[in-house]
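sry for the spam today, last one i promise. struct tokens for design, 559 residues
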């Protein structure tokens, strides 16, 4: 029975660690087209073995081709979740004798999915993350200008319904979801259907009455009833990723060869990276697109009052050894900028610096190509036995924070390049899929869109940590004590060409809106460090945000 199938697979990954799983999506594969079948076979055989793939319908016309496609995908991904589209529901000429109607074919496809281990019912894929497939069909009511069936349209004429195709087919499909919608799903839910759930999603409106055969608003009602944070759909063969009314909608169609520009690289879409929800294109070779992988920014702030020149020279001598490590750039300096001391910066540029900087006087800034390069430096004898020992001699206290480098850094030909870092401890309700987080991201983007700031100001807002690592997990990976990060959860990075540019921004209404949005989310829990700390640092290195792409090692075939 359907309930037995649901129960048998529901608990497989209920306790699987969250950071061991990524989720990808694809729709409209059309495996019965040769070029599409060839592309599916190019998906890397080993890169996704711990990951999950969502297939949002229109895999192929014939059941045989559907089975072949799902078999191929199941060999490449740990779990495959699938729902049917209109192409699967067509009964091909060769299938007339076997399937009296489209419902019989649907049951046959479900049975084959059971045999292949392909999921068609909801299930957790790791701790706190559930995938929810939704059966669906289109309704003429989706056409708000003329919400009535067109008897002459002839949509999907090869589908054979033992019911009214216009008025009953979509209700039948929606009914199939009801027993699963009654279940409680804890944590984050990613839902998917083949047909469009909202009228404001993009589709080809050039053809008359197209809206009658592309979607159904009941899909959106069911997805939201289950608490979905991302809904994947297909059918429109239009790539899309955008938030509508608090839910992110995504479509990554393979489509037909004619749908794509010449020489365009077809990709998957990543929805969950092991830590956060996202909508990011991803290569079939298992590699992200160029520029996706960022460098790591590691900053340590020291309270070193009265540091003498001789002491500083000792630190610089230890620092010179750290600069020899491959894949890292290291600088050490005073709080302020190259041309302004901390006191001058406070007096002339930013009066809040004195209070927000938590008495810090100096900083160590490291930009690393990846976690491995940063780890190699921090675990080296040069750092542990020399720099850290010398720094501890003069520092009353210190703390560190890590974040992906979301802005390009450049100090050449700048009047007085400065890096402003906000370390934030935000409340536990602020998650990557929350509306409050979306507002903070939007406020950050508004700053980057200010006219006339190109080359002068760039900002980025990200969780502390890096990639799949939370700050706590990254501290463990780097061999640092948990206390060094002071519990900060997010970092706001500002790179400016001169302190005057920061002064201009800090006095703007756009920054004021960002500040108000942040202050509303600051943690109210008492801690040793405040919920907001900020620092101005001399910018003395040049590094792009994007990490250099590492070449894959090619296997050498031995005869």
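last one done:
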């Amino acid at each position: 029975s359907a309930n037995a199938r649901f129960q048998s697979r529901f608990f497989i990954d209920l306790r699987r660690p969250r950071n061991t799983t990524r989720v990808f999506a694809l729709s409209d594969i059309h495996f019965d087209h040769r070029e599409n079948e060839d592309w599916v076979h190019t998906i890397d055989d080993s890169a996704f073995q711990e990951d999950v793939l969502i297939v949002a319908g229109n895999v192929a016309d014939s059941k045989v081709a559907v089975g072949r496609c799902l078999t191929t995908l199941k060999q490449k991904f740990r779990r495959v979740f699938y729902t049917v589209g209109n192409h699967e529901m067509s009964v091909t000429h060769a299938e007339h004798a076997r399937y009296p109607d489209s419902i019989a074919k649907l049951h046959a496809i479900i049975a084959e999915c059971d045999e292949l281990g392909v999921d068609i019912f909801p299930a957790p894929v790791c701790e706190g993350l559930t995938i929810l497939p939704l059966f669906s069909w289109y309704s003429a009511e989706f056409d708000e200008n003329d919400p009535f069936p067109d008897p002459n349209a002839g949509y999907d004429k090869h589908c054979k319904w033992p019911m009214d195709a216009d008025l009953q087919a979509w209700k039948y499909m929606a009914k199939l979801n009801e027993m699963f919608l009654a279940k409680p799903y804890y944590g984050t839910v990613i839902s998917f259907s083949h047909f469009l759930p909202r009228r404001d999603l993009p589709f080809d409106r050039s053809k008359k009455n197209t809206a009658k055969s592309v979607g159904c608003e009941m899909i959106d009602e069911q997805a939201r009833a289950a608490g979905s944070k991302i809904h994947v759909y297909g059918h429109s063969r239009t790539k899309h990723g955008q938030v509508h009314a608090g839910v992110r909608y995504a479509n990554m169609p393979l489509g037909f060869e004619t749908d794509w520009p010449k020489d365009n690289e077809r990709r998957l879409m990543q929805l969950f990276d092991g830590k956060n929800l996202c909508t990011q294109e991803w290569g079939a070779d298992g590699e992200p697109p160029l520029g996706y992988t960022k460098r790591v920014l590691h900053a340590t702030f020291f309270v070193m009052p009265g540091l003498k020149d001789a002491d500083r020279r000792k630190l610089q001598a230890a620092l010179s050894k750290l600069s020899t490590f491959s894949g890292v750039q290291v600088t050490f300096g005073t709080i302020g900028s190259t041309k302004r001391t901390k006191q001058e910066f406070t007096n002339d540029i930013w009066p809040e610096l004195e209070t927000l900087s938590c008495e810090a006087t100096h900083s160590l800034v490291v930009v690393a190509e990846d976690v491995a390069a940063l780890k190699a430096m921090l675990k080296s004898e040069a750092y542990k036995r020399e720099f850290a020992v010398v720094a501890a001699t003069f520092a009353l206290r210190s703390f560190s924070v890590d974040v992906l480098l979301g802005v390009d850094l450049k100090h050449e030909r700048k009047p007085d390049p400065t890096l402003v870092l906000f370390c934030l401890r935000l409340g536990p309700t602020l998650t990557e899929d929350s509306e409050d987080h979306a507002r903070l991201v939007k406020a950050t983007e508004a700053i980057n869109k200010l006219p006339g700031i190109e080359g002068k100001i760039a900002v980025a807002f990200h969780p502390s940590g890096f990639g799949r690592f939370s700050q706590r997990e990254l501290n463990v990976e780097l061999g640092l004590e948990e206390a060094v990060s002071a519990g900060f959860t997010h970092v706001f990075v500002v790179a400016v060409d001169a302190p005057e540019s920061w002064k201009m921004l800090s006095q703007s209404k756009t920054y004021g809106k960002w500040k108000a949005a942040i202050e509303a989310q600051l943690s109210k829990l008492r801690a040793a460090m405040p919920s907001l700390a900020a620092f101005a640092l001399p910018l003395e290195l040049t590094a792009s945000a994007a990490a250099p792409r590492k070449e894959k090692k090619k296997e050498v075939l031995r005869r």
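The longest strand covers residues 296-303. ok im logging off now
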